[in-house]
Design goal:
By secondary structure, the protein is an alpha+beta fold. Helix content is 32%, strand content 32%. The chain is globular. The two termini are 27 Å apart. It binds thymidine-5'-phosphate and aspartic acid.
Length: 243
């Protein structure tokens, strides 16, 4: 019998976490809710929950096949993903291949400027503080992660960048930047957590240069539902063709 939802553990901006009848396993329930600018802007994106569950399940399975440990166990239903229960490290790792978003404002950099090698930034995961930019020394000083864990997070993030840049390129999309979260499993190993979806990355269409991600929602560009659906369709066809 498939694991059942029990108690709600916490409700986030785009997902709800539930305990299950199995220790060390929890369920991520994907909502259609969308927020931006630390939840100053709120809305919904049609069918985003099922789309993000499908996209993240496909990408995490792909990453697992390529040597990246993730919390993914299985996709249970349209909106539910069974994952390993982790102790979340309160650090968001952002990898940037080209300038967009906050770095353009922060450092007055022109949008689209390439970064070779990719730039890695850290943000402290705190809604109350608006996820401030932090440095490696903050992470070590406040013991959010030790130096071995931090090296693993950076190494894995750069591997994810290599792997997913290639996947997205094959479906006509450029991976501009993305945010990853990590946690410790019951054995203390650092594994990739949360999700990889158009909510947490920037994808530009290679032909039109149009954003195909949450920037459409952030900047009121229209066709938000359509962009999420299009990305998921291209990925589905890509992985079906590979089987
Ligand atoms: P930024 O340009 O706002 O710093 O974001 C960089 C990338 O990371 C972008 O694809 C959005 C993603 N991101 C999140 O999804 N959540 C966050 O809290 C942060 C800081 C970034
Ligand atoms: N997810 C964050 C928020 O809710 C930041 C963003 O995606 O713009 O505000």
């Amino acid at each position: 019998m498939s694991p059942q939802r029990q108690q709600q553990i916490r409700e986030g901006k785009s997902k709800i976490l539930y305990s299950t009848d199995t220790p060390h396993q929890i369920i991520q329930f994907f909502k259609d809710d969308a927020t931006a600018f630390n939840a100053l802007k709120k809305g919904t994106i049609k069918n985003k929950g099922p789309i993000n569950n499908k996209v993240s399940s496909a990408l995490f399975q792909y990453l697992e096949r390529n040597g990246i440990s993730t919390h993914f166990i299985s996709q249970l239903s349209e909106r539910e993903m069974l994952v390993k229960k982790l102790e979340i490290i309160p650090v968001e790792v952002v990898v940037r291949n080209k300038a967009a978003g906050s770095i353009c404002k922060r450092l007055a950099i022109e949008k689209g400027q390439p970064f070779h090698p990719a730039l890695v930034e850290f943000f402290y995961k705190s809604d109350a503080l608006g996820d401030p930019l932090i440095s490696e020394t903050h992470i070590l000083h406040f013991k959010w992660a030790n130096s071995k864990e931090l090296s693993t997070m950076v190494e894995k993030s750069l591997q994810v960048n290599e792997l997913l840049t290639a996947v997205f390129k094959d479906i006509g999309l450029e991976l501009i930047d993305f945010k990853l979260e990590f946690g410790r499993d019951s054995q203390g190993q650092v594994v990739l957590a949360d999700e990889f979806t158009a909510d947490g990355c920037r994808l530009w269409d290679l032909k039109t240069q149009e954003p195909m991600d949450k920037d459409r929602f952030r900047q009121d560009l229209g066709n938000v539902d359509e962009a999420y659906f299009e990305v998921s369709q291209r990925l589905t066809h890509y992985f079906e063709a590979k089987q």
